UniProtKB/TrEMBL annotation:
InterPro entries (alphabetical): Disintegrin_dom, Disintegrin_dom_sf, Gal_Oxase/kelch_b-propeller, Gal_Oxidase_central_sf, Kelch-typ_b-propeller, Kelch_1, Kelch_domain_containing_8, TSP1_rpt
Native source organism of the sequence: Cystobacter fuscus
Entries under SUPFAM superfamilies matching the protein: Blood coagulation inhibitor (disintegrin) (SSF57552), Galactose oxidase, central domain (SSF50965), Kelch motif (SSF117281)
Key word Repeat present: yes
Residue spans crossing the bilayer: none
Alphabetical UniProt keywords: Kelch repeat, Repeat
Name listed for the protein in its UniProt record: Branched-chain amino acid ABC transporter substrate-binding protein
Length: 1020
């Protein structure tokens, strides 16, 4: 079997972004913006490109439009580019690339620009890159590969870092070369070489950020695969395919696995598919296609399925197949209107369609087709975006939309610090903020804060007053951790001796005591009773005896009558105790009985102030008072009392206190003490302290609420409390109240959410553009820190908008400079001159220039002069024969005439001759001459081992003549049997470029679409 290779890069998949076969997995469902009717799967036509193309590249722009660049058709390599508008189903030519190219790649960068890399044109393989800016419809250079090696059949992969990895490719064979483009820096750096040279391979970005390179061809079809790790900048071999292949596709599935489909190898077209698992680095079967194919496209749909379209299997294919990853099965999904391969396929996510464009059928194609699929197949809309949306939604274009629940519907906003949550009718759940004003106890601050549905309250300070509501405690205070407690009431004062000594505290804080048992000894306090005992109810009583007179002034026994003992009186003056005598009433007292009268102890002798009754000395006579006994009281605070001498019955003479003796203490903090003057008995008039003298400790009130911040944005403020000081004024201690302040924390005021105005009319980018922008006001509210008011600040936000593509004039004509004067011939003196005129009309969204010209009459003054004749050198003398001594020689003569048609001086040449002579010559004959070699006598078409001959003629002088003689020369035949020359039947064939014998005798290329290059059939 002869080797076959595709002449140009056919697969968008392995080119990275030629087609949508490596589209990212579908994202999560979002709310639908509009509803559309259900669309069933199938193919439909759409507008054709302005020109046919194959080996082109296509990529979806950020706007949703599709950019198609370069390629090849019957006119040659293409630099042109076109944009497809999915909404209108139309194509528009855009600015061409600076350089024509085919078999290149196109990669959309994070900036929205498109990087076009490599390929080939008439100059050979390209190492250059360009960038397309959709916003300005311009191209700019992106430099060249750091390796300097131009390549086609390469891959370009956008990395998560924003860099682009360009790997492998073809330049005189498969290459290992890798280059990396940094879009931010706009520069190229060399990358690490692939482990294996490869072209017509695939490169797929894995979810991990690594890049999987699979298959391709080098010296033979490849089954190997390798993985690029950006963090280490290294390639690592991974598991190999079961079947080698190139010209295949590789698609990243939603599961993170990679589906490789179809292709070609040395045995022919491949019809199998394989799955790569990045977590294990292994491959597994993924079913068999109904039709094997190469140069096809594979596109990941938003349903997770993969659409495989067209391709080549002997001829272009129109069939398409759908892969279902959940079952690993394939099914047919209808045929293209036009069979094709080497085309581009791009997923139109918004429309749930796949655009297939260009490629090769029987020739380069300009046609395009759309595959529409049901993105809602298998989609169940049962995951509303919130509790305020209906549980069941509707699907449109693969997107679920949900109706909001009615306003007032009970919901849960997920915020624990709100209550009474309800829907607002627009899908939003909100509730009333919980208030934290029910502290769990009096030792907590009265207002708390809510966190995750629970109110938290700060403890009051340790020692703050409280009431534990227990009457049996006193002096209650907070303990600093929310508790309130006091000192327990002690019950240790029973109401009598017939109650237990320790009682219990009861209601109202009153102590109660249990009575002691009946019969418990007690003392009823009555001397007339004996054997006193408790009665069991708290009372104490004894038995009356009447043997114990109440005092020493009564005799015993007494008489008992009516429950009372009566005892007889003793004689007045009877000593009834130490220093005691009885009086006439029978009372025993500390006193004296003098002169028939009773005087209580301490009584003064009426006849002498310094004598008294002192029973300890005598109970029957007067005794001198001690020398310390006052006998005359002070007559005032400045008088002094007089004292007895201890040996005289009379009081000493009256006297006053010494001057300076204090006579009146200060009556308060604002009074002063007075002193005696040494003359009078009374104290001087009362005086008070000087005004302003401090007369008490400063007192403080409780701290007030926090306020007084610098402004309403302040997070700190001040709080104050009263402070009372005391000073004297006219003898009165007056209170003066002021305030004291300290720093405290404030909660700043917040403002309302933004509000939005209506969208303005559309302002288009230019007179021809169908795109523009509209604006609306956005009012945001910010707090005025000075006033506490929320001030509105209005800005403008912008959004894109479109209109029907405009037509008509879009600018005034512009003119170039007048050209040279054109005349009918170079001898004319008048003619016409032209200048360019450019008019501008709208078309395809751009202002298109239409070139024309403008003319006017002009005059010229031609120069028709020509130079004079010129002469050549004389030729050598020519003689009639070898023996003649007279001959001729010649020279050219050139004269010039002006040609009015050409404007040139036309030269006319003639020959001038003259006679010349020479001496008689000596004949010298020429060297031998050789005939052509005869055919080789061997039967081998490449001449192996044969003999061939030729004639050899030699010349010798004979007089003035040279005489010829002929002989025959033979030699072995030269051989062409070294490769690429091979004897094929009766022909010696160069098998490196022979269509019928490509790489070996009889190995004919499949059809006219192929040429033999380097012994391999390639598509042309």
């Amino acid at each position: 079997m002869h080797a076959v290779r595709v002449r140009s890069a056919l697969l968008g998949c392995w080119m990275g972004l030629w087609v949508g076969c490596s589209s990212p997995p579908p994202g999560t469902q979002t709310l639908a913006r509009h509803a559309e009717p259900l669309v069933m799967d199938g193919w439909e036509g759409t507008a054709s490109m302005p020109e046919s193309r194959k080996y082109h590249a296509g990529v979806e722009l950020a706007s949703g439009r599709v950019l198609v660049t370069g390629g090849y058709n019957a006119s040659g390599y293409l630099s042109s580019a076109s944009v497809y508008e999915p909404g209108a189903g139309t194509w528009t030519a855009v600015a061409p690339m600076p350089v024509a190219r085919q078999a290149h790649t196109a990669t959309r960068l994070p900036s929205g620009q498109v990087l076009v890399v490599g390929g080939e044109n008439t100059t050979g393989r390209l190492a250059t890159a360009v960038v397309y800016e959709p916003a300005t419809n311009t191209w700019s250079s992106a430099g060249g590969f750091a390796s300097g090696l131009g390549r086609k059949e390469l891959t370009a992969t956008l990395l998560p870092s924003g860099k682009v990895l360009v790997a492998g490719g073809n330049n005189g064979g498969a290459r290992t070369t890798v280059d990396v483009y940094d879009a931010q820096a706009g520069s190229w750096t060399p990358g690490p070489n692939l482990g294996t040279p490869r072209r017509a391979h695939t490169a797929t970005l894995l979810p991990s950020g690594r890049v999987l390179v699979v298959g391709g061809t080098g010296s033979t079809s490849l089954a190997t695969a390798e993985v690029y790790e950006p963090t280490s900048n290294k390639w690592t071999a991974t598991g190999a395919l079961t079947t080698p292949r190139y010209n295949h596709t590789a698609t990243l599935l939603a599961s993170g696995q990679v589906l490789v489909v179809g292709g070609r190898n040395s045995t022919g077209v491949v019809g199998t598919a394989e799955l790569y698992d990045p977590s294990t680095g292994t491959w597994s079967p993924a079913g068999t296609l109904a039709t094997g194919r190469e140069s096809h496209t594979a596109t990941l749909l938003s349903t997770g399925q993969v659409l495989v379209v067209g391709g080549l299997n002997g001829s272009a294919l129109s069939s398409s197949e759908l892969y279902e990853p959940t079952t690993r099965t394939w099914s047919g999904v209808g045929a293209l209107a036009t069979a094709r391969y080497a085309h581009v396929a791009v997923l139109l996510e918004a429309q749930k369609k796949v655009l297939v464009v260009g490629g090769i059928g029987t020739a380069s194609l300009a046609t395009a087709e759309l595959y529409t699929y049901d993105a809602c197949a298998g989609v169940t809309c049962n995951t509303p975006p919130g509790g305020c949306y209906q549980a069941a939604g509707t699907c449109s274009l693969g997107v679920c939309s949900y109706a909001p629940k009615a306003a007032g519907t009970v919901c849960d906003d997920g915020e624990g610090c709100t209550g009474d949550d309800t829907c607002n009718g627009a899908g939003v759940c909100a509730g009333r903020a919980l208030s934290c004003d029910s502290a769990p106890g009096q030792c907590y601050e009265p207002v708390g804060t809510c966190t995750q549905g629970s109110c938290a309250y700060q403890y009051k300070a340790d020692g703050a007053a409280c009431d534990d509501h227990d009457a049996c405690t006193v002096n209650e205070v907070c303990n600093g951790v929310g508790g309130c407690g006091g000192t327990p009431v002690t019950c240790t004062t029973p109401p009598g001796q017939c109650y237990e000594s320790t009682g219990t505290c009861g209601a109202g804080g009153a102590c109660s005591y249990a009575p002691r048992a009946a019969g418990t000894a007690c003392n009823d306090g009555n001397a007339n009773t004996v054997q006193d005992v408790c009665n069991g109810t708290g009372g104490c009583a004894g038995v009356v005896a009447c043997t114990t007179p109440p005092d020493a002034c009564h005799g015993s026994p007494g008489t008992y009558a009516n429950g009372v003992c009566t005892y007889p009186l003793k004689a007045a003056g009877t000593v009834c105790g130490a220093g005691q005598v009885c009086d006439a009433t029978g009372t025993c007292g500390s006193g004296c009985w003098i002169g028939g009268a009773y005087y209580a102890a301490g009584s003064t002798n009426p006849s002498g102030d310094c004598q008294q009754c002192n029973p300890s000395v005598s109970t029957s006579s007067w005794s001198f008072k001690p020398a310390t006994t006052q006998c005359r009281a002070a007559g005032g605070v400045c008088d002094v009392a007089e004292y007895c001498t201890g040996n005289s019955a009379s009081c000493p003479a009256d006297a006053v206190v010494n001057a300076g003796t204090s006579c009146r203490a200060a009556a308060g903090n604002c009074d002063v003490a007075e002193v005696c003057d040494g003359a009078g008995k009374t104290c001087p008039s009362d005086a008070h302290a000087a005004n302003g003298t401090s007369c008490g400790s400063t007192g403080y009130g409780g701290w007030g609420s926090c306020g007084g911040g610098a402004n309403y944005c302040a997070t700190s403020g001040t709080q104050s409390r009263s402070m009372t000081t005391y000073t004297c004024n006219s003898g009165t201690c007056n209170a003066s109240t002021s305030s004291q302040s300290q720093t405290c924390s404030l909660t700043p005021t917040t403002c309302a959410a933004p509000t939005y105005g209506s969208w303005s009319g559309c302002s288009y980018y230019d007179v021809c553009s169908n795109e523009g922008e509209r604006s609306r006001t956005v009012t945001r509210y910010s707090l005025n820190c000075a006033t506490g008011q929320c001030a509105a600040s209005t800005t403008t936000e912008y959004d894109g908008c479109t209109r029907t593509m405009p037509t008509g004039s879009c600018g005034s004509p512009s003119y170039g400079g007048w050209g040279t004067c054109n005349v009918s011939n170079y001898c004319s003196t008048s003619g016409t001159q032209y200048r360019s005129m450019t008019t501008y009309t709208c078309g395809g969204g751009t202002c298109n220039a239409s070139a024309g010209s403008q003319s006017q009459s002009c005059s010229v003054y031609p120069d028709t002069s020509c130079p004079g004749a010129s002469y050549g050198a004389w030729s050598a003398c020519s003689f009639g024969d070898a023996c003649t001594t007279t001959g001729t020689q010649s020279r050219s003569v050139t004269s010039y005439d002006f040609n009015c048609s050409s404007g040139q001086c036309n030269a006319s040449t003639s020959t001038q001759t003259q006679t010349c002579t020479r001496a008689p010559p000596t004949v010298e004959c020429s060297g031998p001459s050789y005939g052509a070699w005869s055919a080789c006598t061997s039967t081998d078409a490449c001449g192996q081992g044969g003999v061939q001959s030729r004639t050899v003629t030699t010349y010798s002088a004979s007089g003035c003549q040279c005489v010829a003689s002929t002989t025959t020369e033979t030699q072995a035949c030269p051989t062409n049997s070294t490769y690429p020359w091979m004897a094929c039947g009766n022909m010696c064939v160069n098998v490196s470029d022979n269509f019928n014998h490509c790489g070996g005798c009889g190995q004919k290329c499949p059809n006219y679409k192929f040429v033999c290059v380097e012994g391999i059939c390639e598509f042309q």
